[in-house]
Amino acid sequence: MLKRIQQLTQKLTPVAPAPSHTPAAQVLPWEDVRVQQILGSSGTSEPGGLVFAMDATFSRSATWAEALSVQGSMFQAFGPGLKVQLVYFRGVEFYASRWTRHAAGLAKEMRGVRCKTGATQIARVLAHCETVATREGMRALVYVGDAMEEDADLLLGHAAKLAQRSIPLFMFQEGGDARAQTVFQELARVTNGAYVRFDEASASRLKDLLAAAAVYAGGGRGALAALAKQQPAARLLLEQMK
Questions:
Q1: Which domain holds residue 44?
Q2: If 218 and its partner were Cys, which of 82, 130, 157, 212 is the partner (CB 3.0–4.6 Å)?
Q3: pTM (predicted TM-score)
Q4: Count of domains in the chain?
Q5: Are 126 and 138 in contact (CB under 8 A)?
Q6: In this structure, what DSSP letter does residue 100 have?
C-alpha cells in the first residue's frame, strides 16, 4: 500500500514559506487585523471547532520548547470566536481536553506537556475526530508531528471517513522522515486538506501555517482565500485544497 501511496504523491514537497522581509517590528500572524476579524468574534465563526493534535513522543524533544512557544502563543490569540480542543499523545497516554473558546488556559496547559518515549497514536487521533464529528461537529484537524509508526491502510480508512464529513486534515511535519511524509501527504490529499513540512530552521514559520489553518476553521474556505491574497502560508494551504 505504501508503494501505491508513494506513486500518488510523487510531486514537490510543500515546504514552509520563508517569512516576508518587512522592516523592524513584524506583526505576528494572529495579530493581523484580518486574522483577528475572523477568530476574535464569536459572531463570525462557523459552527464546529478546531481539533489541534500534537505528537509529544520523545523524538520531538530537541525542538519541543520552541514548538510549545509557537503553538501556545497561537492559542492565546484565538479569543472567543473559535472553539478549540487540544489533543496529544505521549508514551501510552492519550489526552483530549474539553472544548474551549477561552484558550489562555489551554495554552498554559499545553506548555506543561513534556515529551515521553512511545509510539505514535495517529489512528487514535483520527478515531477521536470521527467521534467528535458525529457527536458535536468539527471544522478541521491540525496535526503536528515528526513520525508515523502505524499501519497506513488503517490511517487512510479513518481519513476517508473524515473526508465524507468534509473535515480536512492539515498535516504539518517536523523534519524529513520519508515514511511519515508519504502518509501525511496522502492523509491531507484524501481529506482535501494540506501538507507542509518544516524543520528546525523554519520552525518559526509554523505560526503562519497554524494561523492560516485556524482561519479556515473559524471562517471556512472563503476566509482562507481572503487571507491567501496577502499571506504566503495561507496561499500554500489553499493551493492544495480542491
A1: 36-240
A2: 82
A3: 0.84
A4: 1
A5: no
A6: B
For residue 101, give the DSSP letter.
S
**Cβ atoms within 10 A of the Cβ of 78, count?**
28
Distance (Å, whole) CA 199 – CA 210 = 15
Indicate whether 94 pLDDT > 90.
yes
Whole-number Cα distances in Å, 90 to 76, 95, 118, 204, 220: 23, 9, 6, 23, 31
Instruction: Establish if 84 belongs to a structural domain.
Output: yes
Element (H, E) at 109: helix 104-111
Give dist(CA 202, CA 96) in Å, integer.
28
DSSP at 57: B
Is residue 17 assigned to a domain? no
**pLDDT tens for residues 127-173?**
999 999 999 999 999 999 999 999 999 999 999 999 999 999 999 99
- Note whether 236 and 56 are within 8 A (CB): no
Helix (H) or strand (E) holding 89: strand 84-90
Cα dihedral sign, 135-136-141-143: negative
